[in-house]
């Protein structure tokens, strides 16, 4: 049996953060009803690569859901919304500040309609504080949550990370909060309001940088390859430094292309074996006992020498060949995997993390798989819904409407946009 079978979610979220959350919950068996305006989620048409088909932006974030279109600007549409609230365990939204309230649905009103429902809300900066009315996007959240100031090289501009920590990261946080609140609602009969701000989520993912921020008030950061000193203030950008107790960096391998790199962590426990393996090949046969790098303290001081020697050794090997040399001596390492590498990797395929699906509009396509593996209820990934594909199904089988009521609501414009006025 699916882990969340029997849980029904009214998903009013759009774009990336909310749909990431609801897709994960759908993969765990929840019945997710994607509640869309008549024009649909904006991402259906964004970055479209197949004419007249839902974009990959949409399909890759909305698998295993049912789609219903409702015009919330009509009184009849609002009545449908209320009936759905009464049948759902969770309602999710990521509208801008005040949007749902202006439609007449405050948290208090929703709680009155269904006291047990859990309401999940994603905001850029939360519903309180001086930033609460600001608009947020992925890179804005990375900028304001601390990620950008600590990413990049010391003498260069700050960088965003390719991982969507602002959007998808916030979706993961929301999933945890919703499941906790649902557990409590099942125990107490009372739902609650669950809010996750993108800025807050990014800060949580940057917690080691806030660790270092406080360490800097007492000491320099010896593991950084860039100079640090007590009370210097901001945690610096440090390129590809590991940022942990062990030294680490990316080593360039042949044929020295954009992704021909191996990330290597030089643990103290493996230094002797690593030095014995590379030393003779780089002209330093006694590297293990060389006073410049013999101890962890000296290696931290002379990191540039360690990386120079490793890069010199790597000149003769591809990233996979170097990995094959280092793995037998227990050196933690991993190749920088490009999108092509990952899309064709046997390990990835074997773990169902690159899954082929079929779509009636766009044909075959691939989706990133379910990262959470449940032994008794593995995820079955199904395609995303067409716009409004399940409207009649939801009205009949969830709400129990008969054909006459559905026809009446359709005639009143409950599920469609009003006709455009003549100019």
Please explain how this structure is put together.
With 423 residues, the chain is of the alpha/beta class. The chain contains 17 helices and 11 strands. It has 2 domains: 8-204 and 346-411, Crotonobetainyl-coa:carnitine coa-transferase, domain 1 (Rossmann fold, 3-Layer(aba) Sandwich); 240-252 and 261-335, formyl-coa transferase, domain 3, CATH 3.30.1540.10. The chain has helices at residues 17-27, 56-59, 75-87, 99-102, 107-113, 138-144, 168-188, 198-205, 207-215, 271-278, 296-301, 303-314, 319-326, 339-343, 346-350, 391-397, 403-411; strands at residues 8-11, 31-36, 65-69, 90-93, 118-123, 193-197, 247-252, 261-266, 333-335, 354-359, 363-368. It has a 6-stranded parallel β-sheet, sandwiched between helices. Strands 7-8-9 form a 3-stranded antiparallel β-sheet, with helices on one face. The protein has a two-stranded antiparallel sheet with strand order 10-11. Strand 7 and strand 8 form a beta hairpin. The chain is elongated. InterPro entries: CoA-transferase_III_domain, CoA-Trfase_fam_III, CoA-Trfase_III_dom3_sf, CoA-Trfase_III_dom_1_sf, Formyl_CoA_transfer. It catalyses: formyl-CoA + oxalate = oxalyl-CoA + formate. GO terms for molecular function: formyl-CoA transferase activity.
């Amino acid at each position: 049996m699916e882990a969340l079978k029997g849980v029904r979610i009214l998903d009013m979220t759009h774009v990336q953060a909310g749909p990431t959350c609801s897709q994960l919950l759908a993969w765990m068996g929840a019945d997710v009803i994607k509640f869309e305006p008549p024009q649909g989620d904006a991402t259906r048409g964004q970055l479209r690569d197949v004419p007249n088909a839902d974009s990959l932006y949409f399909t890759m974030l909305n698998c295993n859901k049912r789609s219903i279109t409702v015009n919330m600007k009509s009184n009849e549409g609002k009545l449908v919304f209320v009936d759905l609230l009464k049948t759902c365990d969770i309602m999710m939204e990521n509208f801008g500040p005040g949007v749902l309230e202006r439609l007449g649905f405050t948290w208090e009103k929703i709680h009155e309609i269904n006291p047990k429902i859990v309401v999940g809300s994603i905001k850029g900066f939360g519903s309180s504080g001086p930033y609460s009315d600001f608009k947020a996007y992925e890179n804005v959240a990375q900028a304001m949550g601390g990620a950008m100031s600590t990413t990049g090289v010391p003498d260069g501009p700050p960088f965003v990370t390719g991982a969507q920590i602002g959007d998808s990261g916030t979706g993961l946080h929301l999933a945890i909060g919703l499941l906790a609140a649902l557990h409590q609602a099942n125990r107490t009969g009372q739902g609650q309001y669950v809010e996750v701000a993108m800025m807050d989520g990014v800060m949580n993912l940057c917690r080691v940088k806030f660790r270092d921020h406080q360490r800097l008030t007492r000491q320099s950061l010896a593991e950084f390859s860039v100079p640090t000193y007590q009370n210097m203030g901001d945690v610096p950008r440090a390129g590809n430094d590991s940022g942990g107790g062990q030294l680490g960096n990316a080593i360039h391998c042949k044929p020295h292309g954009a992704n021909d790199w191996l990330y290597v962590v030089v643990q103290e426990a493996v230094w002797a074996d690593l030095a014995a393996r590379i030393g003779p090949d780089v002209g330093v046969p006694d590297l293990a006992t060389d006073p410049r790098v013999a101890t962890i303290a000296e290696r931290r001081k002379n990191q540039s020498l360690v990386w120079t020697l490793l890069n010199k050794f790597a000149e003769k090997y591809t990233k996979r060949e170097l990995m094959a040399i280092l793995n037998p001596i227990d050196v933690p390492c991993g190749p920088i995997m490009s999108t092509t590498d990952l899309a064709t990797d046997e390990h990835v395929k074997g773990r169902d993390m690159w899954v082929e699906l079929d779509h009636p509009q766009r044909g075959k396509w691939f989706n990133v798989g379910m990262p959470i593996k449940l032994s008794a209820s593995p995820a079955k990934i199904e395609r995303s819904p067409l716009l409004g594909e399940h409207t009649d199904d939801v009205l009949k089988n969830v709400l129990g409407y008969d054909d006459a009521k559905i026809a009446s609501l359709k005639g009143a414009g409950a599920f469609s946009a009003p006709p455009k006025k003549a100019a």
